[in-house]
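A brief tutorial aside. Many learners find it easier to grasp structure tokens once they have seen a single protein encoded end to end. The record that follows does exactly this for Pseudouridine synthase. Read the sequence first, then the structure, and try to relate runs of similar tokens to stretches of the chain.
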Amino acid sequence: MRYTFDSKATATTTVKRLLAKQGVSHRLFKKMLSDRLLWVDGQAVGNIAINAGQVVRFAIPTTKTVTPEKVPLHVLYEDDNWLIVTKPANVTSVPGPHAPNHSLLNRIVWYLQQQGITEPQPAIITRLDRDTVGLVLAAKHPYAQGRFDQAQHATLEKQYVAVVSGQLTKSEGEIDAPIGLGADGIHRIITDAGQPAQTRYKVLKTATNTLVDVQLLTGRTHQIRVHFASLGHPLIGDRLYGQPSTLIDHQALQATSLSFVDPFSKKQIHAALPIPSLFETLLNEK
């Protein structure tokens, strides 16, 4: 089974221009063209001129995909184009050279294959660090990814909760500090030569440590972890940035809320997770 879509022209144009306005990339269009997956009025076509009112039907080409990994997904939201799933700790968002067959993306490929999708090509829209848990948005096919990339970054909202060591002096604030790659090629550091990075936070609960609600205004690698470490309050469980824990084997950070405007339906899509009970326990760890 392939993903198939219709797009109606509102003015004289060409097939390629019409689909480009809908988020179809040049690369994807070329593959559709070579695989003869474009139709107008029921006839297979190339990049022809079309008039207002004509409908272009197109299908997503099949191609080699990542190896499926047979591990069940926890799905919070699903429709024809999108998945919102939870990512556990110790799993990367996408496959890497050291684990090409083990990632959240591999698991999504297996999930879609069970739905009868031929050579699924999902894409992770909101990646999380290997040891960060919580909500991840995935596009089921390249056309959805293109629609999102074209217009949806401004509507995407993500919230996190974290447990940071110690007690913050302010009940809420914004950390504005550029982040760059450290000399070891692993750590991220605060440096004037880095990329701009802003993190907004609000204290939810304080004990020995502090539970915070966090909103990313930018999306740098390790941003939340680096910013709180720079304040002298690294995340509990974060061995890389200085606060290991005996109660948790990864940083106490969860992507807890995610919302965006669906470019297909124009509806607001939202998903949320409760605060993990372990985070309450970590508030009192010394």
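Self-check: Residues 5 and 58 are 5 Å apart (CA to CA). If you spotted this yourself, you are ready for the next section.
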